[in-house]
Amino acid sequence: MTTxxxxxxxxxxxxxxxxxxxxxxTLSVELWGxxxxxxxxxxxxxxxxxxxxxxxxxxxxxxxxQVVVVExxxxxxxxxxxxxxxSLSAQTRRVAxxxxxxGIRSAxxxxxxxxxxVAVRLAAARPELVTRLVLLEGGGASRAAGPGFxxxxxxxxxxxFFPGLMRAAIRKGMIAASGDPSWVTDEAVHEYxxxxxxxxxxxxxxxxxxxxxxxxxxxxxxxxxVKAPVLLLLGGAKHSAGPPLxxxxxxxxxxxxxxxxxxxxxxxxxxxxRPDRVVEALMGSGRVVARxxxx
Length: 295
Description:
Layout: H1 3-10, E1 15-22, E2 25-32, E3 39-43, H2 54-62, E4 66-71, H3 88-101, E5 107-112, H4 115-125, E6 130-136, H5 147-154, H6 163-176, H7 186-198, H8 200-212, H9 219-224, E7 230-235, H10 245-254, E8 258-263, H11 270-273, H12 275-283
Parallel strand pairs: 3-4, 3-5, 5-6, 6-7, 7-8
Antiparallel strand pairs: 1-2, 2-4
């Protein structure tokens, strides 16, 4: 049974919205559950999509939450303007604009991977909006793209002509980043790459812009402004992705109220590998974790 068939069987499917935040800048948004309940906002990673959170969203709606999943610019089926500002600061402003458009005044906010840094910046810029943060394998990134991605984009000439090659590379990366790669099915690879292969030329151009993007301010300064409680959830299995140790140290030293927990056997893709633990973290119903020392 496909994921869509499962959701239909459960009677739980999201409302899809395309929200314009600026000329040529449209963000894809999923709204799960009726408004008026406590809201949880989930921000997809820039090499992911809203599909990442399908299991988490279904469980949260069943528990009585409204869930809003946002795909930042160039993520999933959001637009991919060539000349846009793809810095983390700009992505944060867009996410805030989406939440304002949806009438959301306060929410628990979760960010996956690099988008954890967008969640952190959102909590710093709009403290009234964010009641609690849950960071999934990220949160301290200083740039929208890491060194490996920047190197890949330096050698990306002609990549737009080989969508199969890009899809294969993403599959390989998904497996390497997982503690339990059994979730990396043909369906998952298709959904993670579907938006990017609609217009490969625009996707490659946007990815190059992401690789060049720099923020005007220091992420460490923004982290220090966050007053909301924060849980950093890490995969406990050996995997190729995840936040570098220096970023974790920075979060520990700068965040006022930080807890860290690990999920044994899981890797970078926590919402795929252990959606139950992500749901617990977002609901605040998991075990209480003390602030941990990081070597």
